[in-house]
Backbone:
């Protein structure tokens, strides 16, 4: 018979193993560890009360003691005899009494066993062969049940479940608890323009103060070897998490420089070309885009607790791509995944320090400026509570490590940014600080906003403004997807703010009909998938087909992806058609390289988007800026033909 505790044992074991796999490979959600811990407790408790052997009731009267069973003729296999002898000895050691079929009997003799605590006699199958042993072992290892064949297999299946839970504990607690990174000392480059550069230095060791930074032209620049002082900071305190930001002014465009800090950190950077100009030589400006980082995911117990596999993939391509900067579109940390340890500023600061302490950070970022926008996991999942707690604590380290190195704000004290580099200008939106609640107002509500009125006005002014000669592209940067085609948790995207989105889309289409040859592209992240989407203007409208807006949404740089498919085209709403160009959901690491070139003659700009998944270039796509305004019908191919 099968004891009830066996069902509980098998179910709790299966629950633990399936959820552990999901946690290690698919999504390290904070909901899973408590369930996994509980499943182990249930499993161990039920396992101890599950008999070693699952026996079948005999079909005859069970009240006989030591009934003699007739011997049968046959050849006794020595192997079967040994295993039967061991099995009988195990049963006797547990208090069972052998009624018949002991080691002196033939293999065909049924083994009858009397339970000392009841009047029931059980029959132990005499088919004690290799096939049955294998079945017993598989049942034990797959279902987590005790093994009738060998107690060691039962111990092994218990060990598997215990090790899985230890792995979950390792993910949740080892990095945050053992790697506080208080001792982190490093420097990095932030925003670099044609005439300036920002450098951040962190130094918690007071013996290294004062900290001063110097710079000079790189040997290849031919500017001489003389070092020039940038400035000196005489003390660093916990108020800025022991960091200081230095700004270098008076630099030459498109020139290589090197810098050195007094605490033994150094690096290189290259200034950008003047607005409207292309870099000399290559005549191509390249930058990178991605979002979402979580150390040690997918889980590998042999990796450093702060390892970031996606940075290794990035490091392989940085030297070849010659990128000017990285646009990182949010979720630099995951404060609530897999466990939130607090809502104070120090808890948030620790998460930033751990990313910067990763052994994989220097190789991918040594001379690559990173620019940042904030998203929800730097605060809390699906954040829509504006500046309520813990917003101030959450933005404390973001301002220290990221805002201080970003381009100038679009307005004084604003959390959104604007800048121009070479043939492109950029508007970096803040989609969290000013966001109205996602519910209960409908997506079409006229009063519902992601940006807030001031930021929306700044964005519309940016889209309307004339650009310097030679600027061919306007990039609008959003931490969340602009398209409605992502259908899972759509309330957290622009899909839930359609009225404001329509205002922005019309302003973007207006750019394409002005006739000045400027294209509009949206760059976004957040979804842990990649999709390229086209937004052609409504048919028979005032806007020409050439005003089509394109979005490239790329993530994660190093995080999970789900095997579920969450992006598909939906019927046009309010005459807005959203056409899928490319959808690539799989891969734990994705980043895009945007390459801007001039079409021969300089009248149009060319954009090549290159997608990299798990370190391999997987797809590329080419756009050109709008030609002369033209009308007429459209086909799907015409949108990007």
Residues:
């Amino acid at each position: 018979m099968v004891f009830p505790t066996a069902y509980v044992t098998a179910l709790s074991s299966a629950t633990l193993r399936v959820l552990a796999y999901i946690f290690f490979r698919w999504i390290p959600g904070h909901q899973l560890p408590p369930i996994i811990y509980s499943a182990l407790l249930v499993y161990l408790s039920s396992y101890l009360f599950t008999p070693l052997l699952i026996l079948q009731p005999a079909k005859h009267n069970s009240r006989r003691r030591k009934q003699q069973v007739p011997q049968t003729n046959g050849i006794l296999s020595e192997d079967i005899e040994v295993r039967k002898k061991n099995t009988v000895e195990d049963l006797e050691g547990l208090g069972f009494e052998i009624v018949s079929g002991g080691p002196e009997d033939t293999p065909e003799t049924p083994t009858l066993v009397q339970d000392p605590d009841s009047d029931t006699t059980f029959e132990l199958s005499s088919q004690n062969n290799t096939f049955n042993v294998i079945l017993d072992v598989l049942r034990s290892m797959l279902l987590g049940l005790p093994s009738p064949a060998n107690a060691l297999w039962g111990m092994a299946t218990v060990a598997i479940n215990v090790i899985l839970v230890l792995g979950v504990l390792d993910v949740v607690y080892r990095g945050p608890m053992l790697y506080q990174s208080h001792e982190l000392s490093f420097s990095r480059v932030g925003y670099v323009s044609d005439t300036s550069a920002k450098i951040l230095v962190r130094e918690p060791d007071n013996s290294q103060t004062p900290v001063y930074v110097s710079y000079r032209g790189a040997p290849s620049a031919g500017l001489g070897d003389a070092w020039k002082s940038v400035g000196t900071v005489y003390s660093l305190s916990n108020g800025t998490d022991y960091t200081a930001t230095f700004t270098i002014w008076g630099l030459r465009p498109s020139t290589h420089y090197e810098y050195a800090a007094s605490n033994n950190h150094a690096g290189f950077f290259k200034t950008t070309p003047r607005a409207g100009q292309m870099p000399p030589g290559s005549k191509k400006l390249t930058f990178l885009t991605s979002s979402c980082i979580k150390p040690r995911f997918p889980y590998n117990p042999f990796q450093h607790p702060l390892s970031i596999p996606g940075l290794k993939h990035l490091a392989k391509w940085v030297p070849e791509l010659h990128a000017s900067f990285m646009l990182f579109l949010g979720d630099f940390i995951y404060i609530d995944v897999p466990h939130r340890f607090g809502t104070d500023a120090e808890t948030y600061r620790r998460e930033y320090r751990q990313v910067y302490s990763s052994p994989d950070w220097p190789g991918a970022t040594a001379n690559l400026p990173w620019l940042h926008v904030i998203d929800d996991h730097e605060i809390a999942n699906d954040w829509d509570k504006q500046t309520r707690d813990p917003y101030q604590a959450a933005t404390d380290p973001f301002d220290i490590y990221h805002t201080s190195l970003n381009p100038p704000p679009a307005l004084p004290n604003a959390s959104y940014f604007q800048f121009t580099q070479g043939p492109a200008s950029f508007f970096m939106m803040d989609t969290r600080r000013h966001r109205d609640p996602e519910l209960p107002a409908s997506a079409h509500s006229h009063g519902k906003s992601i940006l807030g009125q001031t930021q929306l006005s700044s964005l519309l002014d940016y889209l309307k403004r004339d650009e310097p000669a030679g600027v061919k592209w306007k990039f609008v940067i959003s931490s969340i997807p602009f398209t409605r085609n992502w259908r899972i948790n759509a309330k957290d995207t622009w899909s839930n703010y359609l009225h404001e989105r329509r205002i922005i889309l019309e302003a973007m289409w207006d750019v394409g009909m002005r006739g000045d040859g400027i294209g509009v592209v949206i760059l976004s992240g957040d979804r842990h998938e990649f999709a390229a989407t086209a937004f052609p203007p409504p048919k028979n409208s005032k806007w020409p087909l050439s005003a089509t807006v394109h979005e490239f949404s790329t993530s994660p740089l190093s995080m999970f992806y789900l095997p579920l498919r969450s992006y598909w085209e939906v019927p046009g709403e309010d005459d807005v058609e959203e056409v899928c160009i490319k959808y690539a959901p799989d891969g734990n690491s994705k980043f895009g390289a945007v390459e801007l070139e001039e079409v021969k003659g300089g009248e149009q700009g060319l954009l090549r988007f290159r997608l990299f998944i798990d370190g391999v270039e997987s797809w590329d796509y080419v756009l050109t800026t709008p030609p002369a305004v033209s009308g007429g019908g459209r086909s799907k191919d015409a949108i990007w033909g």
Notes: The two ends are 70 Å apart (CA to CA).
